[in-house]
UniProtKB/TrEMBL annotation:
The keyword Phosphoprotein applies. Residues 4-121 form the Response regulatory domain. The lineage of its organism: Bacteria, Pseudomonadati, Pseudomonadota, Alphaproteobacteria, Caulobacterales. The modification 4-aspartylphosphate is found at residue 53. Pfam families: Response_reg (PF00072). It comes from the Bacteria. This is Response regulator. Keywords: Phosphoprotein. Gene3D superfamilies: 3.40.50.2300. InterPro entries: Bact_response_regulator, CheY-like_superfamily, Sig_transdc_resp-reg_receiver. Signal peptide: none annotated.
């Protein structure tokens, strides 16, 4: 059984782009636009991999990473960010510090996403 990829992204453009890239790679994609909904999906799919946008309207991606790691210390999380007020580098370093396996700065392409997913799978093998 294939492990799903749960995408936590509030921007419809990016959700569509990421889903399209993952579909092309043969991934099973589950979509979420809020931290609470993503945490519910985590409970239903404890082995899932996550692609998590950092800047979200209510609870941010850092909050998701901290909570998801508390529920499952081996959670496989790819953090993504396009910037915001302080720039994506700051947010991605913060995500890394809180337990993201890897990070990607928006915009990214299929090859970069594929490489990041390979890193998530490698972290699964080491867990």
């Amino acid at each position: 059984m294939q492990v799903p990829v749960i995408v936590l992204e509030d921007d419809p453009f990016w959700m569509n782009e990421i889903k399209h890239m993952l579909d092309a790679q043969g991934e099973t994609v589950l979509q979420s636009t809020s931290v609470d909904a993503a945490l519910k999906l985590q409970a239903e799919h404890p082995d899932a991999m996550f692609i998590v946008d950092i800047i979200l309207p209510e609870r941010d991606g850092i909050d998701f990473i901290k909570t998801a790691r508390g529920l499952n210390p081996k959670a496989k999380i790819l953090a993504i960010s396009g910037g915001g007020r302080v720039g994506s580098e700051f947010y991605l370093k913060l995500a890394d510090a809180f337990g993201a396996v890897c990070t990607l700065q928006k915009p990214f392409d299929d090859a970069q996403l594929s490489k990041a997913l390979a890193r998530l799978r490698a972290s699964e093998a080491q867990a």
